[in-house]
Amino acid sequence: MRRKLLTCFLLLFSVLFSKVIDAQTVTGKVISSETKAPLQGVSVQVAGSNVGAMTNSDGEFSIDVPKGSKTIEFSFIGYKPQKVAVSNSPITVSLVPGANELTEVVVTAGGIVRKKRELGTAQTSISGATLTEAKAVNIAGGLIAKAAGLQVQGTTGGVNPNYRIILRGNRSLTGNNQALIVLDNVIVPNEVIGNLNPDDVESLNVLQGAGAAALYGSKASNGAIIITTKKGRSGSTSVRFAQTETVEHVAFFPVMQSRFGQGGSSYGYDSNGFPLFSSIENQSYGPPFNGAIVPLGVPLEDGSQDSTKYAGNDTRKDFWQTGLTSQSDFSLSTGDAVSTLYLSGQYASVKGTTPKDKFNRASLRINGTRKIKDGKLNATYSLGFTQNNYNITTQTLDIYNNMLNMPSNIDITRYANWQTDPFANPNGYYNPWYLNPYWEIDSYRQTVRNNYLVGNVQLTYSPTKWLDFTVRQGMTYESQYNKNWNNSFNYTEYAKAASSNSKSDISAGVSDAVNQSTNLLSDAFFQIHTKKNSFSFNLIGGGQWNQDQYKGVGVSASPLVVPDLYNVGNLVGIPGASESNYLARTMGVYGDFRIGYKDYLYLHVTGRNDWTSILPPNNRSFFYPSADISFLASSALKPLQNSNVISYLKLRAGVSKVGEVNLPGTYGAYQLQRTFSQQAGFPYGSLPGFGLDNRLVSDNLKPELTKQYEFGFDLNLFQDRITSSVTWYHSTTSNQTVSTGISSASGGSSYLTNVGETMSQGLETDLHASVFRNKDWQVRVGGNFTYLDNKVLSINGDLINQIALASYGDGSGSYAKAGYAFPVIMGFDYMRDDQGHVIVDANTGLPTKDPNLKVLGNAVAKDRLGLDFNVRYKNLTLAGLFEYRGGYVMYFGGGSDYDWAGTGIRTTIFNRGRFVFPNSVYEDPSKPGSYIKNDNITLTDGNGNAGFWTDDLNRALSANYVSSGAFWKLRELSISYDLSSAVKRSKFIKSATLSLQGRNLFVWLPKTNFYTDPEYSEVAASSNGVGITGISSAPPSRYYGATFAITF
Amino acid sequence: MKNILYLTVLGIVTIFGLGSCKKYLDVNSNPNSATTSTPELILPQALTSTANVVNSYNTMGAELGGYMANAGGYGGFGSAVTYSFGTGDYQGLWTSTYDNLTDYQWIITHTEGDLNYGFYNAAAKIMKAFDFQLLVDTYNDVPYSDAFQEKKNLTPKYDDAKAIYDSLYALLDNAIKTINDAQADLDNNASSSVKQFSNNDVMFGGNMDNWKKFANTVKLRLAVRARGILTFNNQYDPVGFLTQDAEVNPGYQVASGKQNPEYNTWGYTYTGATGNRAWIPTKWIASFYNGSKLDDYRGYAILNGFATPSTFPVNQLGYESNSVLSAPSAGGWITPYEDKSNNIGVLKGPSAPMQIITAAESDFLQAEAALVGGLGVDADPKVLFYQGILDSYKYVYRLADGSYDLSSWDPQADYQAYLDLNPDSYLVNFDLATTDAEKLEAIITQKYIAMNMVNSDQGWNDFRRTGYPKIVNGSTSGTATFASLQSVSTRADKLPARILYPTSESSYNNENVPKDVNQFTSRIFWDPE
To answer: How far is B122 from chain A (nearest CA, A)?
Structure first.
């Protein structure tokens, strides 16, 4: 099929090639009328066509004007647009500050360039410069808080943090909610965004709503982020080098107690009634610190005894090291009348905060354009290759957890030399239950290499002024090599006996996996654009073919024979092996029609039909339409045309319906039939044995349907000194594809079917103001605010009203629950009276656990506020970005562990003594059912490793570990100095910049959250089960660094 | 004009594309997993899964029934020592048994009425009855008649436990008849195409007489347990009851997921790491070996460290203190034989077969039936009683490879020694048991000992049904009762009556799951007040 198509296109183009039409190249320079300084990034567009260019850092441009075109339009943010006649000699254009919104163009769905004023749906453009202001290695990190409606959540720390990117809240209960990523008009897997060189990004356009993105097909129901990489500039050549060095420090630790050390009541009590010290105990329920030297662990075989000062210390923090990120950039941009070329390379190397964790990433890119046949045929191509390498320990969680469990009188940094120091060696390490973190770091490793090749070629043929044909082939190729291994350790008989056999031998293992995937996306469409009287028409029609293919194999072996040889061949027994293959295809045809009236009223309708391979044949075809309208009041209405206050006012509204196929598994392939697999250890030798897998599947699976409407306005005041944008949207998603649990007695344990409906609605606002502007000073402040109301309307009637998205063993966790916010934290609380007081036993003072799982709060921020400022004085620029999120809770699952360990700060709030349970009541013995305020009945045992704090009555109460998720963060702060004037005398150097920047510099949390960064998540970024934070990666970091960039 | 031509060409391309659309999209057949199967492929896996199920029930029975206590060095036992069960406790029993039953039901559905697959059909029915008895003995009412309807009924109703017992008995009769019919066809019809088991019968290697014995024994198990409540036909296939241990061995070996499940849980994993060491034997069970109640060489074979009483790690359930000994490095039940992969005792080795029903249990079931009469077993209870003890010795002393080391571990000799060491106890010397109650106590107590870490759940079932071995209600002595010291039980014996229905049932089948089930007061139908 694909081959036939290709043949057809070749045929088509051999016909089209025969036609030749001339074009003319126009060059020139754009400056500011105010400062006379060259303006970079000015949009240069041939009037009435899609031919456009941008000015370079010297304000220069070069553009090929098709024959017949007479006017070139110049537009730039903060300046009034200008039209200039085509001329043969270089032209200089002087732009006047003021409104520009009328002509500013953005890339929209399908790679179609549109004037902003035509758009009836919300979108936010972010320039490459804004994105890289704070030099985040990952583009997602640079996007945080920069657009209303966009939620970027840094779910982990580590050498290459993961981000969850969501537009307008969650729609799918258990399916994909992440925004579609489009790179140079080609849909790419989400991982690609983290593996792009941020410096390659020219601009990034956020299409918040499903309607705006509908042309991208069924994956667009989550909105889209359209990334356009840089192109070479006609008429000038520049070479840029930049070097960035960034230091990373651990910024936040859970608050732990440092008053009591190792021991507990099971060792007895001293004369003061404090539990006794124990040299081997891991729980911190011993006596208060007294500064004495005490033994640690048991004597070694040679009789030597480890010891420690019985005092709290901070070495758990010292364990983490200073991370260092080094980023080197190179780029070349050039172009002439017929072609442009952009080349770039970047190498980033990261040394993590976890000792010995390393990561590096190398990226290469080549982008080009070429005009053929006098501009009638335009070819563009872009090819990016990225390779990254991880060399990290797999035990960061375990190490972090161990250290948070560890009594604070232990100086963990003393145990770094486990090879030579007998007390640090696993045999002699003081703790029989937990491994020495330094040994773990050396003994549990993972190396991962990822390769990404993302490219596309595009041909556009414009036989006449009103008609274009475009074909485009995009490809993403990914491959991954993944190796995990761990070392063995055989304890001495003495060490085993001395630890009561708690130390038990560890055997070595290795696993190795290779996988690769290829995503192909073919597009072919035509575009007709014409004008008649006061009306303009634009019609697009086309087809799209998408194929995703995956192949993975993995092997594993344990135990191993030869020490330190981590190869599957080096094993005892039988290796584990696995293979998986996936193939999914989608094709779609679409139409897009836009009609404009007098440049102030635009109506736009789209329709698309998709056919997908992964649904049952009777449901595989589905159609979805969208419509939007844009009305430029400031151009249409007389009073506004001449207003001195209102310089721009656009009213817009849109409505859309988009279907998304959200079957589980890779690409959703092969989910329609019940499967059989070898279970219970089969095969045994030559004997096979199969069993039924546990998932039942509905015969009638359908796509999830998202219906969305939005309306809003864009308003600029005082010659665009104040810009604002407000959007309200409402969206419902029905036919949720969910794998719900079912009674095992029915013959399966889960059932994949369409049930339930979700809703999200919210407000997206943006306000920026140039509060002061003159020759030397420029002060711009602003921000965006997002309100999100995200709910589960229904799941499956009476049968199932909640789904655990991510939960712990006792059932507490992140849930989708009908009638509640999506998602909510559910967990266990105490029995309470009507006023919410905890009911305690009148004799023991002990509370009672409510056995029912209760909703403890919504897990996703309702309110988000980003505040940014940019102050420029001559060549010095100071920029910053604050972010607030609030109106939600987080659940720190690790809290219970630290109360068990006695290191948790909660365990000392009553000084380890008897106490009255706070805010409690007890039942009136004379009047059952009524309650008396408790201010005298104390809990008998507030201490010891069998007291209240280690009891289930404390630790099994999830509510004890749920706190407000609110925070303020200083996300970005940068100071840059433009050295251009200093180097102007040089003939070679065009510009130079020196900047200092920091990210996540400060975080302000409410007092109740002494645990961790509320953004963190115990689950993968792709999971909807947000809100349960933990310590599954290295602690949160702050970053600060410096960049020097020079352009020749 | 030319433009129209271009549009036409594009139109043709599009239509051409749509024409091939179906072929382009028909790529959704699964290359990773099978979507069809056969009884030949399902049966060995299902039998091996039953072995895993039996291992899980053994764990539950050992924890609740007095065989196991919390070990030193571990904490957080929670409901395992307080009996304040939640719906999450032991919920794996429910799901794994129904999962296993789903496979048997698949075989039954796909072979019903097909004489050629008679053996497969019968074996699946026999195992279905076996599995369902485990469920009923644990949960009482469970979904039976509505179960396995898949999409047709996602919320199956619960059937009365007694009615299920009745159905299981009939199912076993049906299975025996099916075997006999298929066997007759094989014997009498030269062109018979009845499919015989090959090496895929991982329990009996294709011996259909053993399958019928197994069915007879399960019937007897049902009848004995429901005695006085339900009445059955008490007719058995003449082949009789199990005289050898019914064991599953698909070819267990040292590899991930391929080891004997009980050894894998309590012994060593395939990497050589020790298994679960959070539990050690109880003082209670030790008292039946160390002379405190009875003297028994089997103690040396089963309990790790038994030979040195001063350091022998035992505990009383619920006693949590720093002084509690931790499990030996090889765990509590790998003893003393040099070769841990070819051992005696209850954890014989990674490749040892997994016991499903032992001959000893069959003997004691018959002994009880003979003693009480009316269950179709006409024999001398005393003979069967002693046979049971001997078969237990034979089981415990047998090495993983099936052989015996008669120089050190001669079951016959030590059985004789057992009788000689305990001449004054009617629990061993059957003649001293004068009343039927004492005789029953002797039979059940010996069965309880024989079930120690073999099928501990059967020991727990018998205790709940008969009250044997006798305990002293409310005692805090670890040899007088096996109830946990931290028990919150409201009962006089401080024990639970059952575990609770799993969370998944209250979540997904809430309309049908019995309400107000209490772990102390809701008894299994055969459990007297």
So the answer is: 18
A680 with B322: Cβ contact below 8 A: no
Nearest CA in chain B to A503: B329
Query: Considering only CA atoms, which of A226, A12, A271 is closest in space to residue A119?
Result: A226
| Three-state secondary structure string covering B100-149 | HHHHHHHHHHHHCCCHHHHHHHHHHHHHHHHHHHHHHHHHCCECCCCCCC
A9, A585, A677: residue with CB nearest B33 = A677
Q: Are A369 and A380 in contact (CB under 8 A)?
A: yes
Tell me the two tokens of residue A970.
């200083």
Q: Are A674 and B35 a contacting pair at CB < 8 A?
A: yes
CB A26 within 8 A of CB A63: yes
Tokens representing A993? Answer: 């910049």
Burial class (CB in 10 A: 0-12, 13-18, 19+), B113: exposed
> Which among A459, A540, A744 is the top mutation candidate for probing chain B, defined by the most B β-carbons within 10 Å of its own β-carbon?
A744
pLDDT tens readout for residues B339-373:
678 999 999 999 999 999 999 999 999 999 999 99
Q: Find, among A651, A601, A634, A635, the residue nearest to A717 by Cα.
A: A634
Beta carbons of B16 and A4 less than 8 Å apart? yes
Q: Does B206 touch chain A (CB under 8 A)?
A: no
Is it the case that residue A617 has pLDDT exceeding 80?
yes
User: What is the predicted pLDDT for the residue at A35?
Assistant: 65
Q: Kindly give, in sequence order, each residue whose CB lies less than 8 Å from that of residue A302, ignoring residues fewer than 6 positions away.
A: A422
Among B27, B98, B320, beta carbon nearest to A585 = B27
User: Of A266, A433, A507, which has the smallest distance from its Cβ to B322's Cβ?
Assistant: A266
Distance, CA of A744 to CA of A741 (rounded, Å): 9
pLDDT averaged over 10-residue windows placed end to end, chain B, 529 residues? 55 55 87 95 98 98 97 85 91 96 98 97 98 98 96 94 98 98 96 94 97 98 96 96 97 93 94 89 97 96 93 94 86 79 93 97 98 94 98 97 94 97 96 96 98 98 97 95 94 96 88 93 93
pLDDT, tens digit (0-9, with 9 covering 90-100), for A6-33: 444 444 444 433 333 456 788 888 887 7
User: What is the Cα–Cα distance from A109 to A224, expressed in whole angstroms?
Assistant: 9
What local confidence, expressed as pLDDT, does residue A52 receive? Answer: 73
Give every CB contact of residue B202 below 8 A, 6+ residues apart in sequence: A687, B44, B47, B48, B248, B249, B250, B251
For residue range B502-523, list pLDDT tens digits in order: 988 988 898 899 998 999 999 9
Q: Quick check: A160 contacting B, CB < 8 Å?
A: no
The predicted pLDDT at position B336 comes to 66
> Do A748 and B6 make contact, defined as CB atoms within 8 angstroms?
no
Residue A732: CB partners within 8 Å, gap ≥ 6? A706, A707, A708, A757, A758, A759, A793
Give yes or no for residue A533 having a pLDDT over 70.
yes
Q: Which of B20, B151, B488 to mutate to test the interface with A (most CBs of A within 10 A)?
A: B151
Give residue B282's identity as a one-letter amino acid code: T
- Rounded to two decimals, the pTM is 0.85
Q: Which of A12, A266, A669 sits opposite B9 (nearest CB)?
A: A12
Interface test with A, best of B4, B16, B27, B110 (most A CBs within 10 A): B27
Take residue A23 and report the two structure tokens written for it: 């074009």
B408 touching chain A per CB within 8 A: no
Q: Can you read off the two tokens belonging to residue B448?
A: 């309880």
- The span from the CA of A119 to the CA of A213, in Å, is 12
Residue B31 has what DSSP assignment?
Answer: S
Q: Which residues of B touch A610 (CB under 8 A)?
A: none
Q: What confidence score (pLDDT) does residue A10 get?
A: 42
Q: What is the side-by-side strand order in the sheet with A838-840?
A: A838-840, A920-923, A931-933
At residue A974, the pLDDT reads 92
